[in-house]
Amino acid sequence: MWCGVSTKVDFNCDTMISRMFSIYLVLCYLLTICLSCRLLVPSELLNGCVFDPMIISVSHAGFSINRDNCNSVIAKHVFAEQPLVYYGRARSDRTYTLMLIDPDYPHHANGQFYLHWLVTNIPGEFLRQGLTYDIGEYIVGYQAPDPPVFSGQHRYMVFVYEQLEHEIEVPQPDGRAKFDPISWMESFGGEDVIRGPIASIGFKTEF
């Protein structure tokens, strides 16, 4: 009698463990799929050195970043003022959108960035000669990099997108924090209106 009870209990335990393990594997598989899908969206926005090279220059510091020193660690005070942005392959018959984003800001989910700068409707000829103040439509004004204390090094990437329409109307982001560039662009037409990034440059800094 005791053996019979023991066998039944062992069988039930083995069955339960087997089922729980199967459920665990399924959940892990589904989680992996979800994370992979999500990672595919912002992965191109995690490195400022992968698209056509640009140059950002800070006249007061006599300093510039190009493809040769892209992703270098720079003191944050260097970019206290809005830099000049040059994209030599910009076309004079096209307009562009520029954004500066930080993917390493604390408490931001994957695919969310801290938005430091957002300008649309930039004439290509000005971008080729050097984007300065009051050129294009400033959706979000320039904010200098300022990583929070103890948050380590932050990546800062400047991306340029080519507009398929000469002038576009875009929604104002809800704020600088937790900016999702993919969702933002999809909200006004996505690839039917804007494409890219076509050019980029990046640097790193810390508190």
Task: For the structure shown, list the relevant keywords.
single chain; about 210 residues; alpha+beta; Phosphatidylethanolamine-binding Protein; six-stranded mixed β-sheet; three-stranded antiparallel β-sheet; about 25% strand; disordered N terminus
Q: CA-to-CA gap between the ends?
A: 72 Å
Largest sheet: 6 strands, mixed
Q: Give the number of helices.
A: 3
Q: What overall form do the CA principal axes indicate?
A: globular
The CATH superfamily of the largest domain turns out to be PEBP-like
Instruction: Report the helical percentage.
Output: 10-25%
What does the radius of gyration come to? 24 Å
Structural class: alpha+beta
CATH topology of the largest domain: Phosphatidylethanolamine-binding Protein
**Secondary structure: number of strands:** 9
Instruction: Give me the strand/helix succession.
Output: HEEEEEEHEEHE
